[in-house]
Specification:
The structure is a single chain. It contains no helices and 7 strands. By secondary structure, the protein is mostly beta strands.
Length: 79
């Protein structure tokens, strides 16, 4: 966590030209694309409500398509 938001880091995927961040308030699904077209291996989510658990997953993309989503991680901004 960082200044009221959540910073994510991940390892680069060979062949990926960009990444998508998926976010959910539920641990087992309801994944929505929160950000796309990310060309670095980190992302800062400033729009996280305090006290609400958030789950994140990353998808690697290139001209061929998208990868399967990564394992999810959990974060919580204290209220």
């Amino acid at each position: 966590m960082e200044g009221g938001g959540i910073r994510l880091w991940w390892n680069a995927v060979a062949g990926a030209t960009s990444y998508k961040i998926l976010r959910s308030s539920f641990p087992v699904g309801n994944w929505l694309t929160h950000a796309s077209g990310i060309t670095t291996t980190s992302y800062f989510d400033a729009g996280v409500p305090a006290g609400v658990a958030q789950y994140y997953s990353v998808v690697a993309s290139n001209a061929v398509g998208d990868s399967a989503r990564s394992a999810s991680v959990y974060a919580l901004v204290p209220s």
